[in-house]
Specification:
This protein is α+β, with helices and mostly antiparallel strands. It has a single domain, classed as 2-Layer Sandwich (YaeB-like fold). The protein has helices spanning 7-14, 19-34, 83-92, and strands at 3-5, 42-43, 50-55, 58-65, 70-78.
Length: 93
């Protein structure tokens, strides 16, 4: 089971959301520690080693380091809102 990092970003995003949505996103994030490459993951174009998974209408951006057995959550945001990708661009350049 992989370690999880970057949970601060997830917790910040979850503040103020409905409990059902919070539980849905939290479950998906926790499942990444068991399987970093679930059936619905996709590698991000232009960002080698970065992946995304969907949780309802939300997108979780993360990277996985197999040497450290570490999943790092980078960003969480709405799927139909490009904000999650704008945030990723600000973080990674």
């Amino acid at each position: 089971m992989a370690k999880l990092d970057g949970l601060e970003a997830v917790l910040d995003f979850l503040k103020g959301l409905q409990p059902k949505i919070v539980a849905q996103i939290a479950k998906k994030v926790m499942s990444l520690s068991v399987d970093p490459f679930p059936a619905d993951y996709k590698e991000l174009t232009g960002y080698t080693g970065y992946y995304r998974v969907d949780s309802g209408e939300y997108r979780i951006i993360y990277c996985f380091d197999p040497d450290l057995d570490l999943v790092e959550v980078i960003s969480v945001g709405k799927r139909n809102d490009d904000e999650v990708y704008k945030q990723l661009k600000r973080l990674l350049g």
